[in-house]
Design a protein that fits this description.
The complex is a heterodimer of chains A (509) and B (522). Chain A has 16 helices and 14 strands. Chain A is elongated, with a radius of gyration of 28 Å. In chain A, 38% of the residues lie in helices and 19% in strands. Chain A is an alpha+beta fold and 509 residues long. Chain B has one domain: Alpha-Beta Complex (Amidase signature (AS) enzymes). Chain B has an eleven-stranded mixed beta sheet, sandwiched between helices. The chains are: A alpha+beta (509), B alpha/beta (522). At the A-B interface, loops of A face helix 11 and helix 12 of B. Chain A: One of its GO terms (molecular function) is ATP binding.
């Protein structure tokens, strides 16, 4: 484990610069350059053809829906859309790349010069940070390698490697920010908020499943530190000189984005403080231990020998088409947040918590599925946020869907279960035991409202607690709670508490 | 001696004649196909035009064609006429090596679009023809499986890279063949073997399944003995293909009609431009003499001849040898032993990179390695603008030269290749001398225009065939057929029959070996 400087000390000495590269897998029915299906989790190498296997002689054909999605993403990020752009070959050798070049875009991205505003909780309250988008471009995913044997799970030291080309050719959009400067101590929060916002925006556009745990949104964190600019040495150019950066690959949850940024700030600070240089390199993020380790050294000399893909014709989106796509965009995130807050009647604090937990879209979908705003917020920010924190998973990756939450609340409203039983339903959902109704049935969680059983249990409780019964008979109605508790205990929480209370009072007053 | 004569007659017919005979029920596809298989068995030991012969497949396709013909359901005019395919085209179930060790044993799971169209049109596929490795060369000597020999003189090269297809036609081993032309690989072999070859407009014939040499230059086309045969074959393989984004989404012009009209011999109203830069120094005297005769014949047929200048053509070779290696270096990266083809595993505990390196070292020939190195260099950061970028600019200038020339002429003409067939081994160690063979053919590839090579006669000094090249504006392929057929008709009249009739009979040579040692002893 690397030596770290404390976070506060790191920020006393340095100014962090952050850059984020996000790869989004589009949810098109077919791949970027061929007709193969894109379904996740199919048997390895069953969703392939000569083109996505890069067989000799095969040729690519551009997926028009992928281009449309790319344009919509660009527009949603306030980008300019290229009137004419080309694909390019990025040449490098790796066994999971069928052609040993990736068909991507280089100096002619489909979308460029955009921005998006994110809101984070700063030291002096909510703060809006503008993230400038350098570009969003189209490319194809590579295959997926599985390295068997060896200690690291990486190719080095493995006994053998397997490659699944089902993923090869899945359309990707790579979204690259400009360096995000001057955010100081909130830099990890900005990183997380940006990725969360991107996720919500992509969900709203309907262009991707955005499942970070399945790799359909993958984040690379670029970070560098420069000596702290106290304003005394301003050169009036408005430019900041950036330190040497590291690129931390595959930081694949919102929580990890925040942690990885924080970790790299502390690590860079320790290295620089000790007088050593930062190596420009790729680093690997370890979710379990919360640290990064050195990957391959990445110098600027790495040469991908980009050149325009001669097998494809240029992409020249029709202006009218782009304008139609612009007109059909969902509302921008800040407008959406304001509208939802008003619709739901949330306080500013409720709203910030919801956005901060990465649960805005989840709450919205839960409400759409029939729950009240209060109920949706209660479950997601209470019970489910707690579970996510405890198990260190993303709230969206718990295995609980908005439809599940809405159904659980409906069961509570119907009186079929109570809040306590609802928690057990969530246990079942997290464990993958089926739908809420299936779990209630399988675990026998339904509230008992059978008069005979309840009456007998109340009688047992009165018999077992004569002192309490006497107090109630003497008019101390508040003492009823003790008997109700005893009944609930006997009924394992599955009694209708209101009816039990009625029965107790009927029998004793 | 009756039966052999029938066979001999069948192999000497043109594809159009065979198609007529099949339609009239005078012969069967099985007979025609068997005749060519017999011919291959008899002469290919010497010529080595084929890398693979698929007798069983060809005969079964022939039988199916006969069944269709019998019920009046021919799938195309060429249904049942057999064909040979250059080994650069993916053929489902039939090995495809591109003349390289690195693809030894690879059997494609799919058909190239051209091959699929041949099958759909009912042409039995005789086999795959030899070629320079990955189509890099002008002599077919760079095949990893040994050179093809020129049927006119077995000590000489048949041109390249498609020497196998051209030699198969010249040796009567096939009535039709498919070639590919990146810088002249259809036209130059046509010229030096006395056969006809057409490079269609770029995008006119699908490249899907053609193993790319240089994607922006490659074009598949017909290799035949007559202009009409080329038009018939071009019509079968051409036209839009949704699997090739660079294919032209417009109907082909009436190529067969143009060839038939041209054969009537009237070129009045046609302006023929002689390209000043494609002739003179570096061109063999006999080649130039035959070329001038061809121009005179066109004039006699009514054409108006003008001289045109294309000043940037002098940069064509340099431009080509930057663009081609750049694209090729990237295309050939996929041959890494991971998924198909050769795999060489070094001793010890090799990494994936070690296996890739050893396989590419063993699997690629010198010319391929030379071009991968050139292309990798030309694309490198810091050199891109000076080399690849600059070459693309010159390419635009060459295209402008064509546009201007075509304002003054309907077609442009030049000798196809500067010399007749040279001796095997003569230039194999001198890459620059080898590259110069394509001087006249390369400009058409750089700007995508169509071209045909038609035999112009035998050079006086060596008695070997020479060719004349006719170029037309992009998508005006019909013009090369019209002018080509007119010239062909005039020349046939002059010669009193096909030029190939003047070649020595190969079978006799095999049987008696009268003069085999005089050239082929190397």
């Amino acid at each position: 484990m690397s030596e770290l400087l404390s976070y506060d000390e790191a920020l006393e000495r340095f100014d962090p610069a952050l850059g984020l590269e996000v790869h989004v897998e589009l949810n098109t029915a077919s791949k970027m350059f061929c007709g193969c299906p894109t379904e996740f989790g199919a048997e390895p190498n069953t969703q392939t053809c000569p083109t996505c296997l890069g067989l000799p002689g095969s040729m690519p054909v551009v997926n028009e829906i992928a281009v449309e999605s790319a344009i919509r993403i660009g527009l949603a990020l306030n980008c300019e859309i290229a009137e004419w752009c080309r694909f390019a070959r990025k040449n490098y050798f790796y066994p999971d790349m069928p052609k040993n070049f990736q068909t991507s875009q280089y100096d002619e991205p489909i979308a460029f010069n955009g921005w998006t505003d994110v809101v984070v909780e700063g030291p002096e309250g909510p703060q809006t940070v503008r993230v400038d988008i350098e570009r969003a471009h189209m490319e194809e995913d590579t295959g997926k390698s599985l390295h068997v044997g060896g200690a690291t799970g990486r190719i080095h030291g493995a006994d053998y490697s397997l490659v699944d080309y089902n993923r090869a050719g899945i359309p990707l959009i790579e979204i690259v920010t400009r360096p995000i400067l001057g955010t100081r101590e909130i830099v990890p929060l900005v990183a997380k908020a940006y990725v969360a916002q991107l996720r919500d925006l992509l969900l709203g556009l309907g262009v991707s499943d955005v499942r970070m745990e399945q790799g359909s949104l993958r984040c690379d964190v670029n970070l560098s530190l420069a000596p702290r600019d106290d304003g005394s040495e301003s050169d009036n150019t408005g430019r900041h000189s950036l330190g040497t950066r590291t690129e931390t690959k595959n930081v694949n949850s919102l929580r990890s984005v925040e942690r990885a940024v924080r970790y790299e700030v502390q690590r860079h600070a320790a290295v620089l403080t000790s007088g050593r240089p930062i190596l420009q390199e790729t680093r690997h993020w370890h979710e379990d231990t919360g640290i990064t380790t050195s990957g391959r050294e990445k110098s600027d000399a790495e040469d991908y020998r980009y050149f325009p893909e001669p097998d494809l014709v240029p992409v020249a989106p029709d202006k009218e088409w782009v304008e139609r796509l612009r007109a059909s965009l969902p509302e921008p995130p800040h407008e959406r947040r304001a509208r939802l807050q008003a619709e739901w009647g949330f306080s500013d604090l409720d709203m910030r918590d919801t956005v901060g937990a990465g649960a805005l879209g989840l709450v919205e979908a839960t409400i759409a599925a029939g729950a009240t705003p209060q109920a949706a917020r209660k479950w997601w920010l209470g019970e489910l946020a707690r579970r996510a924190n405890e198990t260190e998973t993303d709230i969206s990756a718990l295995g609980v869907t908005p439809a599940h939450v809405a159904r659980v609340q409906a069961l509570v409203d119907e009186g079929a279960i109570n809040d306590k039983l609802a928690r057990q339903v969530f246990d079942g959902l997290v464990a993958g035991e089926g739908t809420p109704d299936e779990i209630v049935a399988a675990r026998g969680l339904a509230i008992v409202s059978d008069e005979g059983a309840l009456s007998a249990a109340v009688d047992n409780a009165i018999a077992a607690n004569p002192d309490v019964a006497d107090k109630i008979r003497d008019g101390k109605v508040a003492a009823a709670g003790a008997l109700i508790g005893a009944v609930m205990k006997e009924m394992k929480g599955q009694a209708d508490a209101a009816r039990v209370r009625e029965l107790v009072l009927e029998k004793l007053t | 001696m009756n039966a052999p004569q029938v066979v001999s007659d069948l192999i000497r017919r043109t594809a159009a004649e065979l198609a007529d005979a099949l339609a009239a029920g005078e012969t069967t596809s099985v007979e025609v196909t068997q005749a060519h298989l017999d011919r291959i068995a008899a002469v290919d030991g010497d010529v080595h035009a084929f890398l693979v012969v698929d007798a069983e497949g060809a005969l079964s396709q022939a039988a199916a064609a006969d069944a269709r013909r019998a019920t009046g359901q021919a799938q195309s005019p060429l249904d049942g006429v057999p064909i040979a395919v250059k080994d650069v085209m993916a053929t489902k179930g039939l090995p495809t090596t591109c003349g390289s060790r690195i693809l030894e044993g690879w059997v494609p799971p799919y058909d190239a679009t051209v091959v699929a169209r041949l099958r759909a049109a009912g042409l039995p596929i005789l086999g795959k023809t030899n070629m320079d490795e990955f189509a890099m060369g002008s002599s077919t000597e760079h095949s990893a499986y040994g050179p093809t020999r020129n049927p006119w003189d077995l000590s000489r090269i048949p041109g390249g890279s498609g020497g196998g297809s051209a030699a198969a036609l010249a040796a009567y081993e096939a009535p039709l063949a498919i070639g590919t032309d990146t810088g002249g690989s259809i036209r130059q072999p046509g010229a030096v073997t006395g056969t006809v070859g057409v490079k269609p407009t770029y995008g006119g014939v699908s490249r899907y399944g053609l193993v790319s040499l240089a994607n922006s230059l490659d074009q598949a086309g017909p290799v035949t003995r007559t202009v009409l045969d080329a038009a018939l074959l071009h019509t079968v393989i051409g036209g839009h293909d949704p699997k090739d984004s660079t294919s032209i989404d417009a109907p082909l012009p009436d190529l067969v009609g143009a060839a038939r009209r041209g054969a009537e011999g009237d070129l009045s109203g046609v302006r023929v431009g002689v390209v000043k830069e494609l002739g003179g120094e570096g061109y063999q005297d006999g080649v130039l003499t035959r070329f001038q005769e061809s121009v005179d014949l066109m004039v006699a047929a009514g054409a108006e001849v003008v001289e045109v200048s294309c000043p940037n053509f002098v940069h064509a070779l340099a431009t080509y040898y930057l663009i081609l290696p750049a694209e090729a270096s990237s295309n050939l990266a996929r041959f890494d032993a991971m998924r198909y083809g050769l795999r060489v595993t070094p001793d010890g505990d090799p990494s994936a990179e070690d296996v890739m390196r050893a396989t590419r070292e063993a699997g690629f020939g010198d010319e391929v390695k030379r071009r991968i190195i050139l292309g990798t260099y030309a694309l490198s950061s810091g050199y891109y603008d000076a080399y690849y970028g600059q070459a693309q600019k010159v390419r635009t200038l060459i295209t402008r030269d064509f546009e201007q020339a075509f304002q003054h002429a309907d077609v442009l003409v030049s000798p196809t290749a500067p010399t007749t067939a040279f001796k095997l081994g003569e230039k194999v160690d001198d890459p620059l001398a080898m590259y110069l063979n394509d001087l006249a053919t390369i400009p058409a590839n750089l700007s995508g225009v169509p071209g045909i090579s038609v035999p112009s006669g035998l050079a006086d000094e060596d008695g070997l065939p020479a060719g004349v090249q006719i170029l037309a504006p992009a998508t005006a392929d019909d013009r090369v057929y019209r002018v080509g057929a007119a010239l062909e008709a005039a020349l046939l009249q002059k010669w009193g029959g096909p030029l190939l009739d003047q070649a020595r009979p190969l079978v006799g040579e095999v049987a008696q070996r009268p003069s085999r040692d005089q050239g082929a002893s190397s």
